[in-house]
Amino acid sequence: MPRLEFSQRVQRLPRYPAAGGYALPDDVALLASNESPYGPLPQVVEAAQRVLGGANRYPDPSNARLRRALADRTGVRSTRIAIGNGSCDVLLACGEALLEPGAELVYAWPSFSVYPHVAAASGATAITVPLDAAHRHDLEAMAREVTVATRMVIVCNPNNPTSTALPADEIAAFVADLPRHVVVVLDEAYIEFNILDDPDTTLDLLERHANVVILRTFSKIYGLAGLRVGYGLCGGEEMVQALDQVRQPFFCNVAAQAAAVEALRHQDAVADRVEQAVVARVEVESALAGLGIEPAESQANFVWFDLPDPAMEPDVVVGLRDRGVLVRAGTALGREGALRVTFGTPSENARFLDALRAVL
What we know:
This protein is of the alpha/beta class. Helices cover 38% and strands 15% of the residues.
């Protein structure tokens, strides 16, 4: 039987290293995907349920209510806000709109596992820049890689998988020095957990630079990962129009739109969840230090650290799994011998630490 012949694009695309564990029993600490351990607020669930009776109709393709709510929350005009099926959808659309063979994309590595897809899907050239010794973006090194062929630069802040963040003033200086033809995608999926600056500090960049896109999501702090809704705040309206051109219509479902609108009304809950994450961060990092492990300086809802011996990684991951704790192996995320562990509930964090002590 003849084999199917797929396009060169399919052959170029790497497979996203999805976390396992979705088919495991309920008694598992799911610390592998940087999800919130806390579900959406009851009011948010009710808002999503109310619109399901009309699910026979397509969702509003303009996402008007959600864009207005985000405009009220951020101060960015609704015409400069792109909604997506998660912020990853907006990211991939940026690649579709900007990149093509002969163009270049610059990003740090290790960073978000979807970035390699962005260049591969278009045939553009990916230029990866190693993180510095503290697992942070090396902005000076990234700037040196920008050429006349560069169309897009991605800065993940806080960075996934290493949890580190750069101060907003360093990012602002980096953006100001780049050529205007380069679109800077500032991926802020975890920005609410970052206590180096006010989370909205970087929004000022949009008023000064038409070539900036800031990605944010409801998947993390708002606990809506299962509904897939995110957004891009753009320095100019033409970027929003280009993003919508390259995507299918109706890319954000009715339940996601309604839930996100309601979630924005509860910023007090956001503050509470940030506080819980910071407490977990301090407790987990302190316990790791007690095991002789020095993690990266986290500004996210997860921690990243090297194991005492890189060769231990497979056995440690399996040992944790056998004790009911799922984490992400560094090899799948760009660095052999490391682990990325999401902060869970206090009991889940304690379970992880007990299991890690036993495995080590």
